[in-house]
Design brief:
- The protein has 706 residues and is of the alpha+beta class.
- The protein folds into four domains: 63-132 and 270-348, no CATH class; 136-262, Galactose-binding domain-like (Jelly Rolls, Sandwich), CATH 2.60.120; 417-464 and 470-551 and 565-636, no CATH class; 643-696.
- The chain contains 25 helices and 22 strands.
- Strands 2, 4, 5, 7, 10, 12 and 13 form a seven-stranded antiparallel sheet that branches. Strands 3-6-11-8-9 form a five-stranded antiparallel sheet, with no helix packed on it. Strands 1-14 form a two-stranded antiparallel sheet.
- α1 (3-22) crosses α8, α10 packs antiparallel against α11 and α23 packs across α24 (680-689).
- The longest helix has 20 residues, at 3-22.
- The protein starts with a helix and ends in a 10-residue tail after the last strand.
Length: 706
């Protein structure tokens, strides 16, 4: 059977059949014939009169959400124990609202479909392992192999004196094999011919050959033979010749066959026994296939399968058996079909009526999926799935317990790898290129070390439930020897990160982290513009408009060094005199200039171009400061910080941008967490416990922008 062709055709048929189950409907309520989301259907955007009342929390609507590359890799890791990261070669994910998990921009292309098929095939082969080794039959004609004596005779080889015919056969595995010989004798003397079958000179069995040329005999022996090339021989043992009577006993060999391996089970893999939990020989192929598919599909699709879904997947096994393949071939086809189904590739939430804007509770399985992909960027684990099966996740206390359990789990590092990394530019230092001539000590090792500092810092904020103000105003960080050396801190050794409390006023919070400072600089110069823009966009959610077309950067310095020395502040003042630049620079420059004591490599400095640095600045609203420490304090107390942090975390949690109708939701989270200083885990818990996270709706609200 051409199984590759079968899976391609059958899986496509399966995906088409999923349309009705997923609720993809056209204007008349009929299923989309392609089985994929019809997001452009005008009927999905009708206004309704069922909107939440003014001031009530509107949970909004999340587009069907394709797994991004990180989510796919993590899901495969937890589903199959496979760390090969197959999605690394998938097409790049698009970004929206600063993240690459935004449902509206996670499109799907023909390249994705091809990649999903290829990945599914390889993943299933790795998980299940090779199928049982099929026995082959190799025939060796006696006149075509090596002979020690004798001559050809009418299609046989006549061994007319003690000798043998032999060949070297490659045995694929150590197992039982059957060796069959067709031969007859020319009888002479009192005894019949004696024949032996040997492997590497060791006799497997001897036979008395009494048959003659009118009806040659067939002789068989079964034995365990080691893997590799082995010399197999058929030997004539009792030559006899009576010259006076012209009596000559000979052995005539037609051919010998080697069949096997026999009764070899498929090799075990760590995942195999978890997937194939029954023996089709004992229970029957269909009941066993039903059990395997229902269990695996429950994990992969993050919900129990419908009976019809299971029965259609069992047809893969039925089809394989009907084509002469074995049970495992059919199971592999079914598992591959599960992995290329929209039920796996998408995080599915389906509204009974796409046009109804009345909020509804997520099902327990939808809620479990939202929660696990928020905190772990992966599928629900066994405990979370069990609670969903039991319908217990709607219980507030149970849900709170799961939030804290999952945050304590090592898999919550995904929050750092995804949300925090994208929000706080943690990985941007890795692609920065400080000028080597100006900063010869800045190398790849330092890039990784600075990245590690911020990862350790943010991880501590979440794990310790630190107040939000610590993000920008903490008097501590986490250093290893390489970062400490870069900052001029003495007494820290080794590669591990340890908490370090600043004894001076040089650094506070994340705005003093070298990785961020390098990521918001030019190779040779600081960039108050980039630094100010980062603060506005990521800490205050007050992103300045994009620069108008044709705006040039700072004028280049005279290569002959004839320029009058100027600080960055002086150069920016001249640049901002251009009316087209002034509006944006008025917002960004005063913030970034307050960070001018940090050089383009993130180290501390007191002068710029040989001139004293003036680190005074101002945030919108006439909030003045002088230097990074005062800037950190102003930010820590800024009313926009908790609003912005809540918006950033909620955007990632929901996989959609915040809209005007989300304002009551954001204010609710801020109010609920205010008394304890908007602590990080409290913010996360409040978001998850909110209606916006635990509910959804269809339709489009009148006057809203979706």
């Amino acid at each position: 059977m051409n199984t590759r062709l079968l899976i391609a055709a059958s899986a496509l048929a399966l995906m088409t059949g999923c349309a009705g189950e997923l609720g993809f409907s056209g204007p008349d309520g009929d299923s989309n014939s392609k089985g994929w989301p019809n997001v452009d259907d005008p009927s999905n955007n009708q206004d309704t009169n069922n909107a939440p009342a003014p001031g009530e929390i509107d949970p909004g609507r999340v587009t069907l959400h394709r797994l991004n590359r990180t989510e796919y890799n993590n899901t495969i890791r937890d589903l199959l124990g496979d760390n090969s990261r197959p999605a690394d070669v998938f097409p790049e994910d698009d970004f929206g609202y600063g993240y690459n998990n935004i449902a509206d921009v996670l499109s799907i292309s023909p390249s994705h479909l091809e990649a999903y098929h290829m990945a599914a095939e390889q993943l299933v082969e790795t998980a299940i392992g090779a199928t049982a080794v099929e026995g082959a039959i190799d025939r060796y004609e006696a006149e075509d192999v090596t002979q020690t004596t004798g001559a050809a005779s009418n299609g046989f080889w006549n061994i007319y004196s003690a000798g043998e015919v032999t060949t070297v056969h490659q045995f694929p595995v150590t197992a039982e094999y059957k060796i069959t010989v067709r031969a007859y004798q020319s009888q002479a003397g009192p005894d019949d011919a004696q024949m032996a079958v040997t492997v590497n000179g060791q006799t497997l069995d001897t036979f008395t050959v009494s048959q003659t040329n009118t009806a040659p005999g067939v002789f068989e022996v079964t034995a365990t033979i080691n893997e590799g090339g082995q010399a197999v021989a058929v030997a004539f043992l009792n030559d006899f010749y009576d010259e006076p009577n012209n009596a000559d006993r000979n052995l005539y060999v037609d051919w010998f066959e080697i069949e096997g391996p026999l009764n070899v089970a498929a090799p075990s893999t760590p995942m195999r026994d978890q997937i194939i939990t029954c023996d089709p020989a004992a229970t029957g192929a269909e009941p066993c296939a039903t059990e395997v598919i229902a269990n695996f599909g429950r994990k992969a699709w993050r919900r129990p399968l419908l009976e019809d879904e299971v029965s259609r997947l069992v047809q893969f096994v039925t089809l394989a058996l009907g084509e002469g393949d074995d049970f495992e071939t059919g199971i592999k086809l079914a598992l591959r079909a599960i992995l290329v189904s929209p039920n796996f590739i998408f995080r599915v939430e389906v509204d009974p009526d796409n046009n109804n804007a009345t909020p509804r509770n997520l099902t327990d399985h939808e809620l479990a999926t939202r929660l696990s992909y928020f905190l772990w960027s992966s599928m629900p684990d066994a405990e979370l799935a069990q609670l969903a099966d039991e319908g217990r996740l709607q219980d507030d206390e149970v849900l709170r317990q799961q939030i804290q359990r999952m945050l304590d789990d090592p898999k919550s590092i995904a929050l750092i790898d995804t949300m925090a990394t994208q929000w706080l530019y943690i990985d941007r230092v890795l692609t920065a290129t400080p000028d080597y001539e100006q900063f010869p000590e800045f190398d790849e090792e330092l890039k990784q070390a600075l990245r590690g500092e911020t990862r350790a810092f943010v991880s501590h904020l979440i794990n310790s439930n630190a107040p939000l103000a610590d993000l920008v105003n903490a008097d501590y960080t986490f250093l290893n020897a390489r970062v400490a050396q870069h900052y001029g801190v003495q007494g820290i050794t080794g590669d591990d990160y340890t908490m370090h409390t600043w004894q001076d006023e040089s650094r506070r919070g994340i705005i003093g982290h070298g990785g961020l400072l390098v990521a918001t600089s030019h190779p040779t110069l600081t960039s108050p513009v980039k630094r100010g823009e980062w603060v506005l966009s990521n800490l205050l959610c007050d992103e300045p408009p994009a620069p108008p077309p044709g705006v040039e950067g700072l004028p280049a310095a005279d290569p002959n060094g004839n320029d009058e020395p100027k600080t960055m502040r002086e150069r920016l003042v001249e640049h901002a005199e251009n009316p087209t630049c002034a509006a944006c620079h008025y917002m960004m420059d005063p913030i970034g200039l307050g960070m001018e004591n940090y050089a383009a490599d993130g180290s501390w400095r007191d002068t710029d171009n040989g001139l004293p640095i003036d680190p005074a600045g101002e945030l919108p609203g006439e909030l003045q400061f002088s230097g990074p420490t005062e800037l950190a304090e102003v930010l820590a107390n800024h009313q926009r910080l908790p609003h912005c942090a809540t918006e950033k975390i909620a955007t990632f949690a929901l996989g959609r941008g915040m809209k005007d109708y989300d304002e009551p939701f954001i204010e609710h989270v801020i109010t609920e967490t205010e008394s304890e200083g908007h602590r990080f885990r409290d913010l996360i818990e409040s978001i998850v416990m909110s209606k916006s996270f635990r509910m959804r709706r269809g339709g489009t609200l009148q006057g809203s922008e979706e």
